[in-house]
Amino acid sequence: MSCDSSPNRFAVPTTVIPVACGYVTAMFDFEGKEENDLSFKKGDKIEVLERGDGPNDWWVGRVNNTVGEFPGKFFILYLI
């Protein structure tokens, strides 16, 4: 199998990569407005407890011992 040398080979995907559970890293700060929202800062490592199916879905996660919902489009995968 050959490597793809096209300039877009490292392009950011436009859809959410499915994760059953694991961790993601926040790309932006998010200040929740509802009681069940999970607030976090850019760079926070969030443990994913439940995930949505699309990029505009809300996910359930834990950061700093707090559990809540957060927008799925605010993160990048954190590979361990």
TrEMBL record:
Highest taxon in the source lineage: Eukaryota
GO BP: actin cortical patch localization; endocytosis; plasma membrane tubulation
Record-annotated SH3 domain positions: 19-80
Alphabetized SMART domains for the sequence: SH3 (SM00326)
Gene Ontology molecular function: lipid binding
Cytoplasm among keywords: yes
Gene Ontology cellular component annotations, sorted alphabetically: actin cytoskeleton; mating projection tip; medial cortex; Rvs161p-Rvs167p complex
Keywords of the record: Cytoplasm, SH3 domain
Protein biosynthesis among keywords: no
Localisation per UniProt entry: Cytoplasm
Protein name: SH3-domain-containing protein
Species name: Rhizophagus irregularis
